[in-house]
Write a structure and sequence with these properties.
The structure holds 2 protein chains of 2 kinds.
Chain A lengths: L1 E3 L18 H8 L6 H9 L6 E3 L8 H11 L12 H4 L46 H5 L1 H4 L8 H9 L2 H10 L7 H13 L7 H6 L8 H11 L18 E2 L11 H4 L10 E2 L21 H11 L17 H12 L15
Antiparallel strand pairs in A: 1-2, 3-4
Chain B lengths: L1 H18 L2 E7 L2 E3 L2 E4 L4 E6 L5 E6 L4 E6 L4 E5 L4 E7 L6 E6 L1
Parallel strand pairs in B: 1-4, 3-9
Antiparallel strand pairs in B: 1-2, 4-7, 5-6, 5-8, 8-9
Classes of the chains: A mainly alpha, B alpha+beta.
């Protein structure tokens, strides 16, 4: 089941064909200071937008299901305290993050990690910073039940929703004969989340052929991104993530990331999932620990901030960038934000 | 008589061992090659890392295995003792997927 994206200038492209990592182009271009038009055209091909949202066969798209999921997503009664909703940490006003260094959970206590965006997760391969959920459906009901987050055991939530006649009616309409269940709560929220797709950005218009859509600084930044800086080795494809796990040399803490989920793999020590870069200038602060305030800080980390250790990703190599090149990379990343349609608030039952 | 029985038993065991195969799966360009595989019960699959980065093979199905890290140039094997369908992926690069059907 796929749903057509609405943008009139969307580039046609089949979802599911996969996007090359671009590393071959990066390898070629490292030695070439000024790639030609054909090289840049090849780079652009790696980032063409798809025309449809992919939905899994076992949770097909239906407008009423997405609407129910949106209602649940915005409802603070999904938290035990009744004051936190999914949207509290995944706020459309902050690129579906929350603007905090790390998320705030039950009793206003800070959690260990920065709230990840839900933008473009329909294309996600694996979920959470450490990949502990293999589907959006599993992800959707995780934070609701996590003691430090929304802290609502599933049986408590189901009883609570069953006590709200409006929810009984909506679930019966969307899931005839099934009603309110963990499976259907997960299916609804995941369906809504899959509809959150970043709007066409200036970068997309440039890829589509509008040479005036982005500035020369951003064009230089794009070339750096794909060549000398080699950002593309992880931030690949139109969503700018490989959905893989990398230790990028941030300060070591007690949080070992993916290594806790998959023990016995030294490479996964301090490894976290690559975040996508769409709408990235709305999503500060950055990194899994929220340790970087600006995009410039992020780029400079790769110049002189990487901590060397055995688990450091093989693709993280020292890169020498001058001040102008840092600015160019930031200018490029700022072209990845479009004008998303404002999100309307649901009326809760 | 007892000696003959022992000889026959050892020959049968040898025949069973000889019928088990080892199938090679490559890892290059952050992909398994091949991406689909059918083997017999008792066969083993050897994962060669021909890539420039480390991989880590997870096997999920009738039995589960975590082969741990496989550095470039190294290889690790797993034996499939139970029939069924197994989903194999890299724990580092989850888009690397392989389906193994054991018959």
């Amino acid at each position: 089941m796929r749903r057509l994206l609405r943008s009139s200038t969307m580039i046609a492209g089949l979802i599911g064909l996969g996007f090359a990592t671009g590393s071959a182009i990066a390898d070629t271009q490292v030695a070439s200071a000024q790639p030609g038009d054909a090289d840049i055209a090849a780079m652009k091909k790696l980032y063409e937008r798809p025309s449809e949202i992919p939905f899994p066969k076992d949770n097909a798209y239906a407008p009423a299901k997405a609407e129910l999921g949106k209602t649940l997503f915005f409802d603070p009664r999904l938290s035990r305290s009744g004051v936190q909703a999914c949207v509290s940490c995944h706020n459309p006003s902050f690129g579906w993050e929350d603007g905090h260094k790390t998320a705030v959970g039950e009793n206003m206590l800070s959690l260990a990690r920065n709230s990840p965006t839900i933008i473009n997760r329909a294309w996600g391969e694996i979920f959470f910073w450490d990949g502990r959920a293999e589907s959006l459906e599993k992800q959707a009901v995780g934070p609701i039940q996590a003691p430090g987050e929304m802290n609502t055991p599933m049986d408590v939530l189901i009883d609570r929703l069953k006590g709200i006649s409006g929810y009984q009616k909506k679930f019966d309409e969307v899931f005839p004969g099934e009603g309110i269940s963990e499976k259907n709560i997960a299916a609804s929220i995941a369906t809504f989340e899959r509809t959150i797709v970043s709007a066409e950005a200036p970068f997309d218009r440039w890829v589509a052929g509008d040479e005036k859509a982005i500035g020369d600084d951003a064009k230089r930044g794009f070339v750096l991104f794909n060549t000398k800086a080699n950002c593309v080795s992880c931030h690949s494809g139109w969503t700018f993530t490989d959905d893989s796990f990398h230790d990028i040399g941030l300060a070591a803490t007690d949080d070992v990331g993916r290594a806790k989920i998959v023990p016995g793999v030294p490479e996964l020590q301090y490894a976290f999932k690559t975040p996508g870069l769409r709408n990235i200038d709305q999503r500060a602060p950055y990194m899994h620990d929220g340790s970087m305030a600006t995009l410039q800080d992020v780029v400079r980390h790769y110049v002189d901030g990487v901590q060397q250790r055995p688990s450091l990703d093989a693709d993280i190599k020292a890169i020498a960038l001058n001040d102008q090149e840092v600015k160019d990379l930031v200018a490029f990343m700022q072209t990845l934000t479009g004008q998303d349609r404002p999100m309307t608030l649901p009326v809760l039952p | 008589m007892r000696l003959i029985a022992i000889i026959i038993a050892s020959q049968l065991a040898f025949a069973a061992a000889a019928s088990a195969d080892e199938v090679i799966v490559g890892q290059a360009g952050k992909a398994f090659n091949p991406a689909d595989l059918t083997v017999k019960v008792g066969d083993s699959v050897k994962f060669n890392n021909d890539d420039t980065v480390a991989h880590a093979v997870l096997v999920n199905g009738p039995h589960e295995s975590n082969l741990g890290q496989i550095k470039p140039g190294d290889a690790k094997s797993v034996t499939f003792d139970q029939a069924g369908t197994y989903d194999v992926k890299c724990a580092i690069h989850p888009k690397m997927k392989l389906t193994v059907t054991v018959q």
